[in-house]
Amino acid sequence: MLRRILPRSKVDFFALFVRHASLTHDAAVRLEKMLDELARAEEHAVGIRGLEHEADAVAHEVINALHRTFVTPIERGDLYALASRLDDVTDHVESVAQRLWLYGIESVRPEARDMVSHLCRATKAVRDVVEALSTRRDPEPILRLCRAVKQVEKEHDRLLRGAIAKLFHEEQDAKTLIKWKEIYEALEAAIDGCEDVANVVEGVVLENA
User: What is the CATH number of the domain that holds 118?
Assistant: First the structure.
């Protein structure tokens, strides 16, 4: 059992984190849809930016609550880290959408589709992790979900290496190469951010076990 997790607090921090993680996953799902509807790239990019702004507002709400709350369910530093890491993921998802739109991408490389699929898996797993942290006192299911996030990140690393090698081997146009390299890097940052969230939660669970 977790010894100190979930003491009483006037602010429901975990509900805020679940809201933030849900918005992040919604943004990733919208990004996947964007790949199938590049003719509506601007519309999707604007929609994802709206989700990012909503998530940013939740992160600010967490930070503001930390300043006015005496009793917190977990260490303040962990709450701040969780809010910050979740916000990073949403920012990176939005960055991918902006690049797809502003770079005028007209066709999607198969590897990019696979990467966005990994991103959707990772953000869903992050949402599950945060929900589990808010509702369960048994550490093992939470740790198992954290490991699931890390597994997606490992799979993505292998995919990324192959995708970059293929890009440099096949793409002859320098501008197109640079565009896709930046998109790949933004996707990598988003999935790495999911692992960062899992690491924070894992640390919280182990410290309170």
Answer: 1.20.58.220
